[in-house]
DNA sequence: TGACCCGGGTGTGTTCCGGACACTATGCCG
DNA sequence: CGGCATAGTGTCCGGAACACACCCGGGTCA
């Protein structure tokens, strides 16, 4: 909490921020968390959660702190995405932002809004309002990354509840990859990896035959990974 | 060239730099460009080329400018790698660096050294001296990225002379991926993509049967890429 | 209460692709 | 003119991808 002090340097420095693209999965739709800006510039516009990096914290810590402060979110999966630094991307002057990308289980964050003064909401990634700054670019980059990464690393599970059906899992991949997958082959492949624990439970409250529930076995994955195993599709 | 002026801000700001990992391919070995530091901290140590970002230039421009200034290099392929910002990574204070990764044809930069006052040299990536700052981490990250990327995008060609033999190309992949490939399968695959132009020339000055030369067809690749084609292995 | 509707879950045949594998061709050199 | 070093080439096999067809289980509703 610096008071009316100031900081002086021999050469000019850009301001440094972090911005987070947080994805969640609502049945059938991929969502992104946006926050409505309360102050200029772009007051009233929707934007990615983010803010200034403090001098004593790492970039990852800054991203986690901002997410917690602005939306009460503590994601399991958080990774650096890309750094955006075009002069002119912020009307206040030179601001460079390190973008992060996070995956959360929507079920954990349903009553999300208004964790602090601002309002926050989930939007379909295919249908967002006009975003502040260059945040549309950031979102596009994040989508690309997600699409590329989901096939080679088991990060999709971070978007699902702990117990899920194979159909839910398949839909997740179909939504992210934007193409349909063959049910038979999808099941064969994913089960062959032996990373899913088959539970003695079925889904509830459905008006048709209930599907079996599975759980992702993180421990087993860590083991296999060390042994040189590569997750794929 | 600011004179004795100074710049004052209400909140403290990290300094922002770029650092570049430049790869080149010497017959049989993957090389990285290093520069010997002339000033503290780490005076005398080898480090990645880089420097401070200016207020009016983009991050990419900063990377290109530093490469040109410090080593006279203008790479064809340059992409952002990762941003390193751990507090304490620079003994002078908080310095955040945006790392870039570049590929050049070594043949274009053989008489590299001493383009300005400092000395620059190519080192085998498997056998570098102790590096300044956290540059060993940066190099490691760059190697991982190169390894991952070379299989899905035809960037390897940036490391070879314009005309090359299939054996050279195969060696390139073997060096980067750190494993041997089958000659027949490799040729079958790469030729099946129809991205190589077969020339009516053979290599010169070899004491055995001369191999045919090929050229990578950038135009054709752009076309196929738009049509949804995916380069792989 | 039983027919039907809706997705869940499995089997099978065909095709396609990637990996394993070894010999002949060519040109320089001594 | 024989040896050597690298260039260049085709086939076979097994597993994965794909397409199609079928039964299952439970809820709904007439």
Detailed description of the structure:
2 copies of one chain form a homodimer. With about 230 residues, chain A is of the alpha+beta class. The first copy, chain A, has helices at about 60-70, 135-150, 165-175, 185-190, 220-225; strands at about 5-10, 15-25, 30-35, 45, 50, 75-85, 95-105, 120-125, 165, 195-200, 210-215. In chain A, the strands form 2 sheets. In chain A, strands 2, 3, 4, 5, 6, 7 and 8 form a 7-stranded mixed sheet that branches. A 3-stranded antiparallel sheet of chain A has the order 9-11-10. In chain A, β2 (about 15-25) and β3 form a beta hairpin. At the A-B interface, β1 and β6 of A face β1 and β6 of B. β1 of chain A pairs antiparallel with β1 (about 5-10) of chain B, so a sheet runs across the interface. The first copy, chain A, binds a DNA duplex (30 and 30 nucleotides) through α4.
